[in-house]
Amino acid sequence: MTLLSETVQYAISGITAGSIYAVIGICWSVVYLITKVLNFTTGEFVMLGGMLTWAFHTMGFGLPSSVLFAVACTIAISMLLERLVIRPIRFPTEMTYMMLTIASASVIKGLVLLQWGSESRRIEPFFGSGVIHFFGAGVTPQVLCVVAIMTLITLGLHLFLNHTLFGTALRASAINQTGAKLMGIDIGRFRLFCFGLAGGLGAVTGIVTAPITFTGYEIGLLTGLKGLVAAIAGGWSMTGTVAAALALGLLEGFGAGFVSSGLKDVLALIVMILFLILQTISFPGLRRR
Predict the structure, then answer these.
(1) Does 130 score more than 80 pLDDT?
(2) Domains of the chain
(3) Shortest CA distance to 217 belongs to which of 100, 77, 115?
(4) What's the number of CA atoms in the CB half-sphere (13 Å) around residue 197?
(5) What is the C-alpha radius of gyration for the chain, rounded to an integer number of angstroms?
(6) Which of 35, 112, 127, 262 would bridge with 217, disulfide CB 3.0–4.6 Å?
(7) How many angstroms separate the first and last alpha carbons of the chain?
(8) CA nearest 24: which of 171, 213, 165?
(9) pLDDT reported for residue 282
(10) What number is the average pLDDT over the span 67-77?
(11) Alpha-carbon span 210 to 57, nearest angstrom
């Protein structure tokens, strides 16, 4: 491959990864902004989407039915998490929420491991396995599907949050919950909705990426952390999260291609550490007293 074709190939890989991180980052944001919960089960929602689709498909269901069942089950699990684990806490703190979601993620991962084992699973590509050549680089229809679906999800959420009454109320609740309650907005219902939304979006992400990256019980943690990096670096806003996710994806793509593939999973954590250090330096009030 020439330098141009290699550069294009790494850029395609980076944009694909960045699109995935963007939606996962949005999953973190929609829960955190309304509940102040760092939901560490976000990555497990991604894993559940892929694994449940594979499970239903191997049981004899068609791929479209398997996808629908997997998304519905993941939404139900995420809403049960909010009802049974998060909501009953009477005097919550962010640390309490964080520990509860970490424990819940471990339970989900353990159950999947017990049920289906540690082997990686793969869903058949939605649009065949042919390769489209572009400037000497190869891209599969599934990769284009991932980028397209992630783009549609992002645009759809933007329109929903900014051009619907429910979305406007949701944003108002994220900005000032006390004021929203005084206006008659049911914060509890919004909390439940945000957990369900995060579960559904995570499941869709896991489903469309499973034909490319495979799926298994262990993928949730690292995938979720990369989305968290995008959300933090993007300031928990949708536009910022998408921009940070694409930058992270391109950084991974070029870093793995031109430097070392071993850097691929390390770069996200390095970015998060550097960002938090720089943020603390820029805003001394964030330091612990």
Answers:
(1) no
(2) 3-286 (1.10.3470)
(3) 115
(4) 24
(5) 19
(6) 112
(7) 55
(8) 213
(9) 61
(10) 96
(11) 13
Quote the CA–CA distance of 247 and 17 in Å, as a whole number: 10
How many other CB atoms are there within 10 angstroms of residue 39's CB atom?
A: 32
- What's residue 87's pLDDT? 87
Distance in angstroms (rounded) separating the CA atoms of residues 79 and 81: 5
